[in-house]
Amino acid sequence: MNTKNISIVYVPVSDLKPAEYNPRKISKESLTQLKKSISRFELVDPVIVNGATKRKNIVIGGHMRLRAAKELGHKTVPVVYVQLPSMKKEQELNLRLNRNTGEWDFEKLKFFEMDFLSDVGFSDIDL
Asked: What span, in angstroms and rounded, lies between the C-alpha atoms of 72 and 111?
């Protein structure tokens, strides 16, 4: 996979197809927080989509961003196309994108105001 010439293009949401195998759950609260974020800052994290001929427009990463954008009435979303003709590779990238989310440094989070953290989507249980 050559990623040296990555570019972002805007694609109609109606052209994109969520991967049926995507194992990630979308909670109501997470979706609500994402919609707030998109409303405030736009969709700044592109959806990752397969551009390979037989898998054209299958969403690999960004299912929740796509759903939130649709619910907010967006007609297009930013997309980065990757060329993965192998469904196995497509599924692997989907799992890796969903799995590799990192962890919070709670010592650094202590320096943020609770109201701010709550507004961003943290709960008392999270902290």
From this structure: 32
